[in-house]
Amino acid sequence: MDQPSSHLRIKQVDGVVVAEFVDRKILDELAIQEIGDELERLAESEAGIRLLLNFRSVEHLSSAALGMLININKKVNARNGRLKLAEINRQILEVFKITQLNRVFQIHDTADQAIEDLR
Questions:
Q1: Any idea what the CATH number is for the domain that residue 18 is in?
Q2: How many domains does one find in the chain?
Q3: Is residue 3 part of a domain?
């Protein structure tokens, strides 16, 4: 299921769809829209999807990107899927805590932990 994409590297691991962000900075409105479109297609591709968003490469994230993540979470949940986030750097994780999005999303330290939890 590997497929090239401009903003996401997508693969499947043990039945879990892993979308890893390629961009170091997710700030540009157009890029956020494109990422949102890609993730939306994934979320709607199968009911009950198990999706992991890996932030390993991401250093900066805008508030618009946070809004996009909330929308993706709603779409995944609406189709009885599960969404996890992993490998978020400390600075971005602090934003999740301040905005209380750490209560909305299940965030894991490593992708392996998230995949294990999604199995």
A1: 3.30.750.24
A2: 1
A3: no
Q: Contact 86/52 with Cβ under 8 angstroms?
A: yes
- Domain with 19, as residue range(s), is 8-118
Q: How far is CA 102 from CA 11, 29, 65, in A?
A: 25, 23, 15
Spell out a b/e string for 57-82, using b for 16 or more CB atoms within 10 Å of the CB, else e.
Answer: ebeebbebbbebbeebbebbeeeebe
Per-residue model confidence as pLDDT tens digits over 59-108: 999 999 999 999 999 999 999 999 999 999 999 999 999 999 999 999 99
Dihedral sign computed on CA atoms, order 62, 94, 11, 79:
negative
pTM of the model: 0.93
What is the end-to-end Cα distance of the chain in Å, rounded? 18
